[in-house]
Amino acid sequence: MAYYKLTKENEIATIWMDQPGSEVNTLSVKMLDDFSALLDKIESDNEIKAAVLISKKDNCFIAGADIKDFVAIEDSEKIEQLSRDGNQILLRLSKLKKPVIAAINGACLGGGLEVAMACHYRIASTDKKTVFGLPEMKLGLLPGGGGTQRLVKLTNLRYALDALLTGKNIYPFSAKKAGLIDSLVHKEGLYQAALQVAANPIKRKAKKVGLVDKALNTKVGRNYVLKKARETVIRKTRGNYPAPLKILDCVETGLEHGLAAGLEAEAIGFGELHASAASKNLIGLFLAMQENKKLKTNTKTTQINSLSMIGAGFMGAGITEVSIKNGYDVILKDLTNEGLASALKTIWSDFSKMVKKKAMGAVERDRLMAKVKTTTDDNDLNASDLVIEAVFEDIDLKQRILADIEKRCKKSTVFASNTSSLPLADIAAKATNPQNIVGMHYFSPVPKMPLLELIVTDKTSKRAQQLATNVGIKQGKTVVVVKDGPGFYTTRVLSALTHEAIKVLHDGARIEDIDAAMKDWGFPVGPLALMDEVGIDVGAHIARGALGDMFVQRGIEQDDTVQKLADAKLYGRKVGKGFYEYPKKGRKKVNTAIYRYFGGEERKDMAKADIQHRIGLIFVNECILCLEEGILFSANDGDLAAILGLGFPPFTGGPFSYVDGVGADQVLSLLQGLEEAHGNRFAPAPMLTQYAKKGQAFIQ
């Protein structure tokens, strides 16, 4: 299979990249070997004076390395050598005496950007699909093809570190301004513009360097930036992610000892990270997310072009935003025009921020906004194929809305409730067509959170489930299907975690110690800070419902402290006071007055490991119970949903991968000790006991 086709015209060679049988081009061992042979041809052909590197794919230059190809290599020494060999090929490309112009349209990520940076000139399209980035750190890796070296040289140290340590997307105008890209052109003129540059090589103008970057472009300045970056990385990763520090090591080595030393540091670091558990788990998470997209089908009966949204609050606005951004027309219905106006303002503001960053054009923003039809008239929903409601968590209200939709809409209309805790069977209790009812639990803020928890009952039809799945995936979400029950999966396991955090607080721990311990364990936010963000009143409302009843039936004593906090209007961030105080200016601080609900202000030291085991393992145990009871259809689903929806430490691979990594017997032993010390809420799930005895893994 040929990855490249070489054509020649007027002393200019064009290298057409077109990976057979794939929608994208990816880097693989075979592709690099072919590329090396291609350089031989260009170098030895005296008729060729310059070359253009371009893709035949519509929306992709090179999307990065083939991860499956990478995972198949188990020996980390081979991975180290692969990086070394790849760097030699790209070094050869960069030193080629015949200029090579990279003509970039679409995704240019990871190894793809490293190839482009090794070329002598980079011209890119302004198309909305064109995006650059080095996202390797998200996989627990570092760029192994010169990315830590060339990005610094092409842009500047601050810009490069930001890109390398976040793995964020870089859009064309930002790339051009920073010096990563030499020129921009409309998609249709890309090839001709590249040929023109190849025929008449442009002398680069010296980069304008600001006063700050001039100051930082000294040894003292560089050392200061690297020191601050290292401090930030340690503070944010809390020692759980080795990749960012390795990236900093490579950058520093290159700046201190030159390109060759920097590339060698990359190869060694690449091999070391490949062997790390964090990288294996993060790559597993990435592959699971890719596999999840295969849930989508193209069956005509489950494909729709428009949907209706009831409720124009924060969640309704967010669901509308991701829907129109991904191709749907939306009828947005609310009781008042003021509510509708507020939702439109929110969406317009989000899109305008993208326009300001030149990640979206103003015309595109206006086109997308035109896809929303707002209304206060119920009759405008009559022709809907899918109606999503995002109203307050009140069973009577949701039942009334459902009854009205069933009266006015088609018999085939699918009704989706964006409920976070109410059992779907209760919402559908009086339904005429229960087969059409699903739960679509989005997470806040909807445009940023990647998970959609799709809830089904025994009566939900395959058509309704598939239609909702297709919509979620098109909205850009990872869809995890779960069975109906109190709190479903995510709210149920999160409630177990926050309930235990309250218990630990009652036992005398400090608020800041609890949150710090769980952040050290790998959660992005501590449980008490999270309750403030979600709303303590929301937590109290959930605890009063079916979920609280379920815990009581299991013999787990429910604490009424959260309800007392809600009664005292200590709702959290939205009112400026909860477990923390949120001043209008300055950082949040612990609200010590709240301790009067937890036995007084006198607090005691509690071992960090004790806090982590109590809060972390009660969460993990509840996840296993959900699998045992059939709420989850697979352990893989449980891992995905816990990480993407609740921030469970990604480097562990998820709660089930965590058990496999630590050992089911070890987790069982810890839970048994906790049960003995603190009561039956820590009683190990029977499935855990069974797996521990058999030495069986949850993730196969």
Structural write-up:
The structure is a single chain. Helix content is 50%, strand content 12%. It folds into 3 domains: 4-275, 2-enoyl-CoA Hydratase, Chain A, domain 1, CATH 3.90.226; 296-484, Rossmann fold (3-Layer(aba) Sandwich), CATH 3.40.50.720; 491-694, N-(1-d-carboxylethyl)-l-norvaline Dehydrogenase, domain 2 (Orthogonal Bundle), CATH 1.10.1040.50. The strands form 4 sheets. Strands 12-11-10-13-14-15-16-17 form an 8-stranded mixed sheet, with helices on both faces. A 6-stranded mixed sheet has the order 1-2-3-5-7-9, sandwiched between helices. The model has no long low-confidence stretch (mean pLDDT 94). The chain contains 30 helices and 19 strands. It is α/β, with parallel strands linked by helices and 700 residues long. The two termini are 33 Å apart. β14, α18 (424-427) and β15 (437-442) form a beta-alpha-beta unit.
Care to give the gist of this entry?
The protein contains 30 helices and 19 strands. By secondary structure, the chain is an alpha/beta fold. The protein has an 8-stranded mixed β-sheet, sandwiched between helices.
Structural descriptors:
700 residues; 2-enoyl-CoA Hydratase, Chain A, domain 1; Rossmann fold; 3 domains; eight-stranded mixed sheet; 30 helices
Furnish the topology, listing elements before pairings.
Layout: E1 4-9, E2 12-17, H1 29-44, E3 50-55, E4 60-62, H2 67-71, H3 76-95, E5 100-104, E6 107-109, H4 111-118, E7 121-125, E8 131-133, H5 147-154, H6 157-166, H7 172-178, E9 183-185, H8 190-199, H9 211-216, H10 219-237, H11 243-257, H12 259-274, H13 277-292, E10 306-310, H14 314-325, E11 329-333, H15 337-356, H16 362-369, E12 372-375, E13 386-389, H17 395-408, E14 414-417, H18 424-427, E15 437-442, E16 451-456, H19 462-474, E17 478-483, H20 490-506, H21 511-521, H22 527-534, H23 536-544, H24 546-553, H25 561-567, E18 580-581, E19 589-590, H26 608-628, H27 635-646, H28 655-662, H29 664-678, H30 686-694
Parallel strand pairs: 2-3, 3-5, 4-6, 5-7, 6-8, 7-9, 10-11, 10-13, 11-12, 13-14, 14-15, 16-17
Antiparallel strand pairs: 1-2, 15-16, 18-19
